[in-house]
Design a protein that fits this description.
Number of helices: 3
Helix content: 25-40%
Strand order of the largest sheet: 1-4-5-6-7
Largest sheet: 5 strands, mixed
Number of domains: 1
Distance between the termini: 17 Å
Radius of gyration: 14 Å
Strand content: 25-35%
Shape: globular
């Protein structure tokens, strides 16, 4: 499965970014650096991808944006916060459902070891 291979590679790139920068920076810094690393690795990557909502046949741009979308299959939701809570998982799942994406990674960069801040999210839509 393509998403699983991509997710392992992306996790490695995220760990590289986290090792270089450490915890404590703004989410936007990690997003820009990870976007750069993913692009440099040769993946098709989109940053701040708009996710409109379709309600009763009307497409509404409500300002929802996926932090990073890799190969049009893998959703990356990045955080730099004290700890992840259920609403962050719900947010990731919402983006995945809206775009009909099967796999996502919720990453909190404000941890000592990034592996402790990653949640793999699977959507069966």
């Amino acid at each position: 499965m393509r998403e699983d291979l991509s997710s392992r590679t992306i996790i490695g790139l995220a760990i590289n970014v986290h090792t270089a920068l450490g915890p404590g920076l703004l989410e936007s810094v990690y997003k820009e650096c990870l976007y750069y690393k993913i692009s440099k690795a040769g993946f098709h990557v989109e940053k701040e991808k708009a996710m409109p909502i379709v309600f009763e046949e009307v497409k509404l741009d409500c300002g929802y944006r996926i932090d990073i979308l890799v190969e049009n299959t893998l959703v990356l939701e990045l955080k730099s916060i004290e700890s992840l809570i259920d609403i962050h998982l719900a947010q990731t799942l919402t983006y995945m459902k809206l775009g009909r994406y099967r796999l996502g990674l919720l990453m909190n960069f404000n941890v000592l070891k990034l592996k402790d801040g990653i949640k793999r999210v699977v959507n069966g839509y």
